[in-house]
Each structure stands twice: as structure tokens, then as C-alpha cells.
Amino acid sequence: MHLQVGMDAPHFELADADMQNFRLTVLLGKKNIVLYFYPKDDTPGCTMEATEFSEHEEDFAEHDTVVIGVSRDDCISHGAFRDKYGLSVLLLSDTESRVCKKYGVLYEKEVEGHKTISIQRSTFVIDKQGKLRHVLYGVHAHKHPDEVLNLIKEMK
User: What are phi and psi of 111, to 5 degrees?
Assistant: First the structure.
């Protein structure tokens, strides 16, 4: 099931790279949220995307926006990924794919003759009221953070 612009963003609670629980509801009324789903820590595309989002941290902050990355890697993997590249984005661990399912980002792909479930690189822009303002499935990592920043700048 794909989410649509104007819907309420599905709520969730997940652990971050420091094994602290993060709840989406804590930011409601305070911040816009860029919630991006990516396939795997420390792979070329995912590293590029996380690094570019981190480089724009101050630009997003100027627009009251927090950037959160979600993958199915565990907290320890997230911590290593964050530290290796000096990432400033909040990385959340969805090892059981619960949030991935809520946001409709899983798909089946074939790798060496085996079917496997993977995350489709996707980004959701959620406003301070918790509404989905932009729903982007199947994005490309390179320059994607620039595009998202422009979408945030256009939001009123």
C-alpha cells in the first residue's frame, strides 16, 4: 500500500544508533520531518545519500526540519555507519520491518536466483501537523537531499 500526500504520517517508535527510543510524536507541532528509507548501511548509494543529507543539516535546521533515516540494519550497524562518516542525520533501526510496512517501502527483488525483500529508497516530507506533504517512492540517492531541501523551502 502506498501512502498519499495529505494523509497523516503513520506513527512509530524505533531505536536509534545509541539504542535510545525515538517516537515520531515528539516532533509534532515543533518540527517538519524528512523521513527517508534506505536499503543498507555503508553501501555506496546509501552512504552518498546520508552524507549529502548530513552536509545540509544547517539548511534543514533553518527551516525547522529534522532529517531521519530508516533501514533494517540494527543499532550497532547504524552507530558504526554514523561514526565512520560523521553523519548528523538520526538513524533509526527497523529490524522487524514494521515501519517499512507502514510506509509501503518494501519490495521483492531477485538476487542470484533468490527472491529477497528489500527497501525501495523512498522519502516522506511530514509537516509540523503530522501530515504527509511529499511522498517520493523509488528515488535516486545522488542529489536527492538537494531536491528535498528545495521542497522544504517551498513549504509554507
Answer: -125, 120
